[in-house]
Amino acid sequence: MFFEFGIKDFIDILLVALLLYYTYKLMKASGSIKVFTGILVFILIWLVVTQVLEMKLLGSIFDTLMNVGVIALIVLFQDEIRRFLLTLGSHRHVSALARLFNGSKKEALKHDDIMPVVMACLSMGKQKVGALIVIEHNAPLDEIVRTGEVIDAAVNQRLIENIFFKNSPLHDGAMVISKKRIKAAGCILPVSHDLNIPKELGLRHRAAMGISQQSDAHAIIVSEETGGISVAYRGQFYLRLNAEELESLLTKEN
Q1: Residue 67 and residue 153 in one domain
Q2: Is 31 left (phi over 0), alpha (psi -120 to 50) or beta?
């Protein structure tokens, strides 16, 4: 009797492979790749014991551990699961489908909306004033906004520069821009523990990477040491940007 392999089997294997791949990426970004590898090894041993060797006593112990382990994993990796769901919900195709159902239309950022931010970053870069600016897109950043001081002001170059001035009480935190307005400043961002981040990049870059991994926001960093302008977006760094590159990246369709 030959094994029948149909289109459903192919889709099934493809979906499982994609699930494992995205889980691997998520664990790697959060620094939990060794835990992920340990879980895969445990599942492999469980399958060998129960399905191949058919050891009933040891198999029942492993079955119990698997049942309890699912709950333990949900508790242990609640942040990673939340990040995965946020990433899934903020995906461009899923967001487009959601907007189709609720009738809302995405308000894209244009040249005039983003130029005050670009000019402020260039000015702060020349003066080597450190800054961290987060631009919200589809995924809401209400929890981040609550960690800072609410401003709710129009996006203005001088205001941005004044907030990040070295003696300003809000210069150490992040600024959040939402719906073409400066929503809050002095906000606290989640710090990425990704081991692949270059050692020369500081805490601002790690915080920018953290929010970019948890949402679809653009996070702009102005380095206090070099004055260089960088952007973290969807878990990737864009380093040493000039004015044209920064504007193009920020106005790019999400």
Answers
A1: no
A2: left
pLDDT at 171: 85
Residue 164 resides in a domain: yes
Using pLDDT thresholds of 50, 70 and 90, give the confidence band for residue 87: low
Q: Which of 34, 69, 101 is the last residue of a domain?
A: 101
Report whether pLDDT(93) > 60. Answer: no
Q: Are residues 55 and 148 in the same domain?
A: no
Residue 106 domain-assigned (yes or no): no
Report the 10 Å Cβ neighbour count for 183: 21
Please report whether residue 1 resides in a domain: no
More confident residue, 175 or 72: 175
Residue closest to 121 by CA, chosen among 7, 206, 4, 228? 228
115 with 90, same domain? no
Q: Which residues constitute the domain of residue 87?
A: 7-101
**Residue 97 in this model has a pLDDT that exceeds 80:** no
Domain count, the chain: 2
> Minimal CA–CA distance to 206: which of 219, 216, 187?
219
Nearest to 10, CA basis, from 1, 20, 2, 18: 18
pTM of the model: 0.67
Among 101, 124, 156, the domain boundary falls at: 101
